[in-house]
Structures are given as structure tokens and as C-alpha cells.
Amino acid sequence: MEYYELPVDDHLKKYIKCFWVLKCGNEGIPKDYMLPSGLGYIFHMRTSESFKATYPESNDTVKIENGFYCTYLTSLLEFERKEMLVIGAAIYPVHLGLIFKGGLDQIKSKTKKVHELYNIDISDKSEIDIVQIIGDHIIHQLNINPIKKDLSLIYKKMIETKYENISVKEVASWLGCSERHLNTLFRNHIGMGAKRLIQLMRFNHTIELLEKPEAKDNLAAVAHQVGYYDQSHFIKEIKAISGKTPSELLLDKESISKKFKLY
């Protein structure tokens, strides 16, 4: 398996975390998974044979073939591992409601074709060409629907703050609104309430910490670092989000999932 990231132009950096390229075969792993990152993805798939991808939470199963797809990775995604070349963009969730005008329910824990791009002939296109196609599509959608600046600033502050220690009440105070109004804004623009987004941010930080050598000997310290003071609550919430306990995530070294993270 080979994974690497490509540079993001300055005018796209506030919308896109990274462009990425993934090359892999099944490598003796018939099935794989991706963990919920809270990021949206637009990607081009080139595969030797079609395969199924399933979100157990939404019971959404899609046959993946060659072409452009999008998904909002808010829960565990399982798929058959095939030989594939995937080129995509990881998009910050605060912008997804504008890029996907039909509503985030169409892509939240679902995988859909990007119909505006699907019939583009990319047979002679390079990785950079495909990145350009995806970037141009994102900018086109955002030009039609400009972002609410206050919400964008709040999301940026959440990323920069030690979000494992913040509450919905504190985030609402930054915006000078009620928790109810904040959750309405988040659901309309991000597709989830503020509490769920904070949980996913904590989860991403957990994955980061679990990759450190010392994590396997001190899960209690990992739990404390991401804002959990009860280890049993920590284990329960991580499993509820990912379908796996922290110990199971520690043991899995071969999954593609470790490459796709919010932080």
C-alpha cells in the first residue's frame, strides 16, 4: 500500500485539508475499513474490478466502479479490498453543506456518484489533472453558495483549541447564541450537532495518540488526554463511534483507515 498527499493551493486551504493519492492491492486482506474522520471526500476511483462498500450504521451499500464519488465519513465504512488507485480531496465539514446543495443526508455515511464529474474522460489525465478537476468543482460549488463567515470561524477555533476539553455550551458562547441555535446551525451546515462533531474530533485525537508506542501500555493516559476521566466511558464511546475498542484499534496495523484523519 502506498499513500501520499499532494499540495493544496493557497486559495483552497481553508476548504480542503489535503489532496491524497492511495495505491493498493488486496495484499492478502479481503476486507478493510475506514474509521469515521468527520471529513467529507470527493475522489476518483480507478479499480481493477468493482467492489462493494458498506456503511453498517446507515445500511448503505454501493457497488464501486471507476469514476468520481463523494462520501461524508461520519461512521465506520467497510469495503472489499481490491487493486485500486484513488485520488481525492479531504474536505472540512463546515463547507460540505454548500458543496452538496441537495443536503448532507445524501452523503452522510453514504457513498454517491458525483454526477457533474462522473462522465469526464480521465484516461489521459495525470494525478495533478484529477486534483485540478476536483478542486475546480469544489470552488464552483462554493462560489454559488458562500459560507457563513461566523460558522467558518467557529469551526476553525474548534480545530485550533484543545477541543477535547470544550463543551457545546462553550462553543455557543463563542458565537453568542443558544445551544439550540448552535445545533441548528451545525445540522444545517455540517450535518450533525455540535456534540457529535466534538466527539469525532476527540476520536481523531485518540487515533493519533494510539499510534504512539507508549499508548499500548497506558490507555488510561490516552483517555485522560482526550478529555475522558472514566476509562470505561472512553472505551464505550470509541466503540460506539468506530465499532472497535481502543485495544482492537491498537492491534490493527494494516488498515487503510489509519491514513485518513481529521487532525
From TrEMBL:
Alphabetized UniProt keyword annotations: DNA-binding, Transcription, Transcription regulation
UniProt entry tagged with the keyword Membrane: no
Molecular-function annotations in GO: DNA-binding transcription factor activity; sequence-specific DNA binding
Alphabetized InterPro entries for the sequence: AraC_XylS_family_regulators, Homeodomain-like_sf, HTH_AraC
Pfam hit, one: HTH_18
Residue span(s) of domain HTH araC/xylS-type: 148-252
Lineage top rank: taxon: Bacteria
Protein name: AraC-like DNA-binding protein
Source organism of this protein record: Flagellimonas meridianipacifica
Organism lineage string: Bacteria, Pseudomonadati, Bacteroidota, Flavobacteriia, Flavobacteriales
